[in-house]
Amino acid sequence: MDADEDYRCRNSRAIEGGESALPSSLLFGAGLLGNLLALFLLGQQRLRRGRPPRVSAFYLLVSGLAVTDLLGKCLLSPMVLVAYARNRSLSELWPGGGEPGRLCQLFAFLMAFFGLAPTLLLLAMALECWLSLGHPYFYQRHLRRRRRAAALLAPAAAAALGALFCALPLLGFGATVQYCPGTWCFIRMAGGSAPARGYSVLYASLLGALGLAIGLCNLASMRSLYRMARRSHRRSVPTAGVATGRAPAAPRMEELDHLVLLALMTVLFTVCSVPLIVRAYVGAFAADFDEKADLTALRFLSVNSIVDPWVFIIFRTSVFRMFLHRFCRRLNSKKAVTPRLL
Fold it and tell me: Is 317 exposed, middle or buried, given 0-12, 13-18 or 19+ CB atoms closer than 10 A?
């Protein structure tokens, strides 16, 4: 391969000039604060009534997602800040072990792992929501009594599967490379050998497949919730709608809360992962060394773990929840009043 047709900072020993540590520091602070606040709110929710209530599987999975995002920030961001402080690239901070150095390989593994593991947890959350709404009998009979064990097993399974898949470049299937300005290392997304290109496409395809599965589960849950609302409306119109003049209550607000939160996190995941998926496919088939586009895709992927907890924090605020519940009650009231007018 021509030396000009490769990543510019692949062998850099120092950080490229003109780069500041301030953006990385702000992102690290925002991610750390957001995940700690999210875990605090989850703890407060559990202890609100004096004694710990029975925790739901969804609660445990959201807690596992917050812990995973927090761990990712605490492991990755300090490496970047140390590189800026010493003005040395990641490959130069801990060389050896072949190109691009041990620290760069570790950073790439952690970056890939913490991009994949939260997605697996989101899929577990989506499946739990879909089963509880769409197949309540199966859920109550087979999963509800074991939900705590299943919810605790899900993060462990996600970690094991993610670690196994992301370790493949260390075993020779796939390759890692250092990206500009020398503070990012990740899977090689352009050029290289056939196994390297194949692994980048496989990683991107796995992210896309997981995102599609999460979206399908969310759509199925929304359909089940809509059917529940219609059945509740039909049963309550002759009594609540005509005799008392009051609208029937909105069905199962807890499930609605879970579904809305999951939908918001899914949209966020999609926005943050699509640039990486696109760059992996473009680089594999066209050898497009557009480092600015690659760096943008990596930053989008890392932002997901920062914004996730803030979405949860905003969702848990009383103002947002009150608006959501009022909107659902008003929508349900219109459905109840319409048959009387006709």
Answer: exposed
Residues of the chain short of pLDDT 70, as ranges, are 1-5, 18, 45-56, 97-98, 138-139, 141-152, 154-155, 229-255, 316-342
DSSP string, 143-212: ISTTHHHHHHHHHHHHHHHHHHHHTGGGGTSS-EEEETTTTEEEE--SSS-HHHHHHHHHHHHHHHHHHH
Q: How large is the C-alpha radius of gyration of the chain?
A: 24
Residue located via tokens 């952690």: 110
User: 61: Cβ–Cβ under 8 A, 6 or more apart, which residues?
Assistant: 121, 124, 125, 128, 151, 154, 155
pLDDT in tens, 86-107: 888 888 888 876 677 888 899 9
Alpha-carbon span 295 to 302, nearest angstrom: 11
* Contact in structure between 183 and 100 (CB atoms under 8 Å): no
- CA 234, chain centre distance (Å): 37
Nearest to 108 by CA among 31, 211, 20, 185: 185
Amino acid sitting at position 195: P
3-32, pLDDT tens digit by residue? 445 777 778 788 877 677 888 888 888 888
Q: With the C-alpha atoms ordered 261, 135, 162, 290, is the resulting torsion angle positive or negative?
A: negative
User: How far lies 134's CA from each of 44, 221, 265, in Å?
Assistant: 30, 6, 20
Nearest to 34 by CA among 309, 302, 269, 303: 309
Q: Cβ contacts of residue 19 below 8 Å, gap of 6+?
A: 84, 181, 183
Residue ranges of the alpha helices (H) in the chain? 22-46, 57-86, 90-93, 102-134, 136-138, 147-166, 194-236, 253-286, 291-316, 318-341
Residue 300 neighbours by CB distance under 10 Å: 16
